Amino acid sequence: MDIFEQVRKCRLCEGTLSMGANPIIQGTTQAKILIIGQAPGLKAHQSNKAFNDPSGDRLRAWLSVNHEQFYNPDLFAIVPMAFCYPGKGKSGDLPPPKICAPTWHKPVLKTLNQVSLTLLVGQYAQKCYLSHYSTVTEAVKAADFANQNPLPLPHPSPRNQIWLKKHSWFETCAVPQLQARVKAAIAH
């Protein structure tokens, strides 16, 4: 059984999840781009498909890829900070349980030898992998979108409209560079 299948069978925090365990992960050892995000949302939980919601629509637009490309596990590995839907909180989904990433990230990432671009989507991934920045804004503003790896991205959630309006440079300046990086990684 490969590591992706092992993660899909994980039940470590099943008792703490309001909707039960349903680990969602995508990838193969051939994946070229790694996306580390927050945790699956309700629609992803219900469909067993990461970013299968308006956040995913925006993320795919930022990356300039279609559904077929995005859900091709030989192109994109999707390894969230938590693999199961954490449940609903007062202002959105609950934070990812802290047991998933320490348990699974190291063995999963060790198998992704073909990855040439890693995208850290949102605050939880950035706090884990770019801990020297205190906010998403600070990490994204400081990023060199033409060369940096891993590359921080704001969360593509519709709830993030205010951030995107306040930082319009992200979509006008950073996204075209991001798209060029994704295109090059896929072609590699």
From TrEMBL:
Domain Uracil-DNA glycosylase-like as annotated: residue spans: 24-179
SMART domains noted in UniProt: UDG, UreE_C
Highest rank taxon of the organism: Bacteria
InterPro entries for the chain: HI_0220.2, Uracil-DNA_glycosylase-like, Uracil-DNA_glycosylase-like_sf
Pfam families: UDG (PF03167)
Matching CDD domains: UDG_like (cd10033)
Name of this chain's protein: Uracil-DNA glycosylase
Naturally occurring in which organism (per UniProt): Pseudoalteromonas piscicida
